[in-house]
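Following up on my earlier message about NAP. Here are the inputs again, as you asked, copied directly from the submission form:
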Amino acid sequence: MAERMRFTGKVALVTGASSGIGRACARALAAEGAAVVLAGRRRERLDEVAAELKGEGARVHVVVGDVRAEATAAAWVKEAVAAFGGLDVLVNAAGVIGNGSVMDTTAESWKHVMSSNVDSILHMTRAAAEPLKERKGAIVNVSSVAGGVRPYPGLASYCVSKAAVDMLTRCSALDFAPFGVRVNAIAPGVVVTELHTVTNAVADYPAFLERGKTTHPIGRVGNAEEVATLILYLASEEAGWVTGANVSIDGGRALASAR
Ligand SMILES: NC(=O)c1ccc[n+]([C@@H]2O[C@H](COP(=O)([O-])OP(=O)(O)OC[C@H]3O[C@@H](n4cnc5c(N)ncnc54)[C@H](OP(=O)(O)O)[C@@H]3O)[C@@H](O)[C@H]2O)c1
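Thanks, got it. Here's what our run produced:
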């Protein structure tokens, strides 16, 4: 058990809990006492995480679906409230990466990336609004250094989707503030997960990670567990006066530019 138990008695819903940052975040929330709703498409993967966390004494519930659909988001929140009686924390970690320059991004791939990364968060935020207002809860959106912070060549739809997440976060922060609900985003650099490999987003992943030693001034890429620590801080009452922020966690990558 973690030494700190900031989420005892709290209920958290984490999208993208079958892999990477979402999974690490679900584990960390459970370790600090939260009842966690694990959301994603791959039931088998979610069941594995659920079994692991249950084995450690956590209260968990699995919900399955494609969060690009508004009805899925609504059903997930409904199930979360039915399972655990309310909702305190929403972590929007589900997302995909898509390659392509502005010139060669097809309408289809643009739509796929925007619906996976932006519509999903809008759906989840709207679906969770009432339960979060009831508990004065918090939302953390997983954006990227490739969002409002930095553009990259050949990554148009992804960069635009994450810039949209950043502005959606700020709009949400203002709209929810009167209800005591905080909304923040994080902007990770390269983190070792399945993001780049499930879609072959980079030609040579080991070489990409090796390059990360120089593209990140701190000299290495990140891991999902350290990203989860920031998400938990923003979701916790310790961050009670933080809203509308986009916090970098990127080994200094956003500061660097090629020379
Ligand atoms: N890894 C990085 O370098 C990095 C850097 C900056 C930002 N990020 C952001 O971090 C977030 C998490 O990515 P990750 O790196 O942890 O990648 P990952 O290991 O590929 O995990 C992505 C998660 O999103 C879920 N997901 C994707 N599309 C979905 C959909 N339509 N409906 C439901 N679930 C969906 C996947 O679950 P299923 O396949 O089971 O549905 C999976 O759990 C993403 O928003 C990504 O853009 C990652």
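One observation from looking it over: Residues 11-247 form a domain with the Rossmann fold fold (CATH 3.40.50.720). Hope that helps, and feel free to reply on this thread.
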